[in-house]
Amino acid sequence: FPVTIHSLCSTSLIVQSSHGQRIGISFNCCCFIGATDLNVFKLTKKGRSASATGLSISDFEMEDVFGSLSFPMMKTMLHYEIERIRINPAQQTSIAILYFENSWELINKVGKKGEKGLLESIVSATRENIKPTDFIALENNATMYLCLVNSDITAATQMVGEVSKLIASLIKTNFNGFDIKISNKTKALETNNNSAFYLKQLSDSVMLV
After folding, report:
1. Which one of 8, 22, 41, 201 has the fewest CB atoms closer than 10 angstroms to its CB?
2. pLDDT 10s digits, 65-100
3. What three-state secondary structure class fits 60?
4. For residues 172 and 179, what is the distance between their CA atoms, to the nearest angstrom?
5. From CA 34, how far away is CA 189, in angstroms rounded?
6. C-alpha atoms less than 13 angstroms from C-alpha of 68 in its C-beta half-sphere
7. 204 within 8 A of 95, measured Cβ to Cβ
8. DSSP 69
9. CA distance 178 to 167
């Protein structure tokens, strides 16, 4: 029904119906969630990048990037890792996300033809600094997940921090001082939920800011 815009800014929108009733809808990127009084529109980091530049869509599947698992395979591997920890609670495994906030700028520099090689270089540099038993998955050209097998949260957090610094340094050195913005989060893998839940938790921890 007809609405009147009450106030508008880059991150919020408040609307009022023609009958004077406030409408309760909140938005998160393209996801609509019902509310009761206030209507607020907020973009995640990914949404803000997309609104400014458009989404950067790759011309290849992420599983084609050498050294990276597909995202569905990551979920399956985590499922088995959760079961392993459930059987042997003394084992500790951690999972992590690295989100490259301004990756679209870098991809614009290398072009679509150079995108796959760039991602393979990032995965290779990461692989050289984690254990052979650990695994890596790219969800897209801005989001990389790690499963750090038999690493407690303290050791894993330190490792992820070092990998983030290494990637940033390599990109700065090889792309004329380009500063890649990397958000990361590490958490201990638990057994009271499924792999999709924990990956969503990680994603929300860096995107919904």
Report:
1. 8
2. 889 999 999 999 999 999 999 999 999 999 999 999
3. coil
4. 6
5. 31
6. 29
7. no
8. B
9. 11
* Distance set, CA 149 to CA 81, 123, 170, 172, 189 (Å): 8, 17, 25, 29, 10
d(CA 130, CA 125): 9
136 C-beta neighbours (distance < 10 Å), count: 20
Alpha carbon of 80 to those of 44, 83, 147: distances in Å? 31, 5, 12
Coil, helix or strand for 75? helix
pLDDT beneath 50: ranges in the chain: 1-43, 45, 47-55
How many whole angstroms separate alpha carbon 182 and alpha carbon 80? 29
pTM as predicted: 0.73
- H or E element, residue 185: strand 182-188
Read off φ and ψ for residue 41, nearest 5 degrees: -110, 120
- The three-point CA angle 123-126-130 to 5° equals 135
- What is the rounded CA–CA span in Å between residue 21 and residue 119? 50
Query: What is the Cα gyration radius of the chain?
Result: 20
